[in-house]
Write a structure and sequence with these properties.
Layout lengths: L4 H10 L13 E2 L16 E3 L3 E2 L12 H22 L6 H14 L1 H5 L2 H7 L11 H6 L3 E2 L2 E2 L1 H14 L5
Antiparallel strand pairs: 1-2, 2-3, 4-5
Helix pairs in contact: 2-3, 3-7
């Protein structure tokens, strides 16, 4: 499976982006959604495009086009897709797959692989002493840099609705 076009467009709508006056994507702080000063060291969580966390050696100080932002998104989605494919052992519908890819994209492949969400999905008889069900395990991923984020609370609800095929 691959994330659907509808899922990719949904994800684009959920990820922050910051554009300059020419419509190019510029670097922003993922936590605040505000542009960063490119003449200073980049903060933890420096991001460009649709949620692409800037890695050591990547230089986006001049911004990137929409085409490049979408290329980065698709490359990052591929990592999240592998996380879902490698860790989920039960059949999924397209909406469930898209919701799980969104979650893996947002929390990272390793966090996804180690999550209680994966345990609940793979084993309906699983029981956690921390999370009473899949929904509570899913919605627990609501922190950004250690702080509860209303944006992540809302995103988890939208993903949960997508997983359950409610209107999103």
């Amino acid at each position: 499976m691959n994330m659907s076009i509808m899922g990719i467009n949904w994800l684009k709508g959920k990820e922050d982006k910051v554009l300059d006056k020419q419509g190019n994507h510029i670097i922003y702080d993922d936590r605040t959604g505000k542009p960063v000063n490119i003449n200073k060291p980049l903060p933890k969580g420096a991001t460009i495009g649709y949620g692409h966390l800037i890695k050591n050696g990547e230089d986006f100080r001049n911004g990137i086009s929409e085409v490049k932002a979408t290329e980065l998104l698709r490359a990052d989605i591929a990592t999240a897709e592998r996380a879902v494919q490698d860790n989920i052992t039960v059949p999924l519908s397209q909406n469930q797959y898209d919701a799980l890819v969104s979650l893996a994209y947002n929390i990272g492949a390793k966090n996804f692989a180690d999550s209680t969400v994966v345990k609940y999905i793979n084993n309906p008889k699983f029981h956690s002493s921390v999370y009473q069900n899949l929904e509570s395990a899913w919605k627990a991923w609501n922190r950004s840099q250690g702080e509860i984020s209303n944006g992540l609370i809302n995103r988890r609800q939208c993903e949960w609705d997508m997983y359950n095929k409610f209107a999103v």
